[in-house]
Amino acid sequence: MTKVSDLFMLKYGHSLELNAQTISSAPEAVNFVSRTARNNGVSARILPVLGREPAPAGTVSVALGGQGGAGVAFLQPFPYYCGRDVMILTPKTQMSEREILWWVTCITANRFRFGFGRQANKTLGELRLPDEIPGWTGSANLGRYIGAELPVEDKSPPPLNPGSWAAFRYDQIFDIRKGRRVTKADIEPGNTPFIAAIDSKNGCRQRAKLEPAHPGNTITVNYNGSVAEAFYQPEPYWASDDVNVLYPKFDMTPLIAMFLCAVIRLEKFRFSYGRKWRLGRMKESIIKLPTAKNGKPDWAFMEGYIKSLPYSKSIET
Q: Are the beta carbons of 259 and 270 closer than 8 angstroms?
């Protein structure tokens, strides 16, 4: 085994407060990396800070604390500033992008060791990692992500005007089914996505040796755990009994599904550990959607809206 400090020089970040910075989309704006576990750690873009040099591209940011982000590492492809409790790791020797991504994966795999009450600042350097890089990392195709941030259509998103949207019951547009319980003892490593009530990794807790219970091109919504987290599932899968599965009663594309998942997640505030989104309650729940002249959901508008957004080009359709 090797240690993080054997591979990288560790340095505390800028400890800037985002609310004290000027958020901007100007060309000169710089990424602001915080303790979030999403969006490669970037929570905003800000104007350059007088007298503060951004961390260089090609270094690794690691969140030292925070709810859900502690121990999460990201390779930063652009210069960046850091928020509070973020450490910057600089390779001690020349490393390829593939090598750095391997170590980033290994560091993040140890995030279970840290949490809100146990930060990574004192122990990160001593964290033990495998002493060899697998050969398959050299054949990983990183080129597939080039241009991933581009939209499908190069135009501004149309206005949403949610105040004019119409209300529909969930069971008007979906056939809703409940997932099935399976115990940990019955789960073995395999190829089928096991969808659980979590808020990341598209809901996939692991791949298991289970016969798929639901087809792809459906949406999973947590009724327990991280309630109202919604994910589009592109391939057949097994859903746990903490998850409701939405079968569309219309011709759903991945782009339409992305729109619907975003709208469904807006319902999170209505639910909690004591008020779950159970099957019966979900069937009677209301979802508001853009509407066509015939009074039905405007699926074409929803698809067109997603096509106009950054990163929509990376959605497999």
A: no
Tell me which residue of 85, 135, 134, 94 sits closest to 114, measured CA to CA.
Answer: 85
- Amino acid of residue 283: K
Most distant CA pair in the chain, distance: 65
Distance, C-alpha 182 to centroid of its chain: 25
Give the mean model confidence (pLDDT) for residues 20-25.
92
Whether residue 117 is predicted with pLDDT greater than 60 in this model: the reply is no
DSSP H or E stretch at residue 18: none
Residue 48 tokens read as 């350059």
CB-based contacts of 81, cutoff 8 Å, min separation 6: 13, 14, 16, 21, 30, 31, 32, 33, 46, 49, 52, 54, 55
Domains of the chain from N-terminus onward: 2-145 (3.90.220.20), 162-314 (3.90.220.20)
Give the residue among 175, 179, 198, 193 at the shortest CA–CA distance from 244: 179
- pLDDT tens digits along 182-227: 988 888 999 999 999 998 889 999 999 999 999 999 999 999 888 9
Please check whether residue 51 is in contact with residue 15, taking contact to mean a CB–CB distance below 8 angstroms. Answer: no
Query: What are the two backbone dihedrals, phi and then psi, of residue 186, each rounded to the nearest 5 degrees?
Result: -95, 0
Q: What CA–CA distance (Å, rounded) separates 3 from 211?
A: 40
Element (H, E) at 7: helix 4-7
User: d(Cα 167, Cα 287) in Å, to the nearest integer?
Assistant: 6
24 token code pair? 């901007």
Residues belonging to the chain: 317
Neighbours of 5 (CB within 10 A): 14
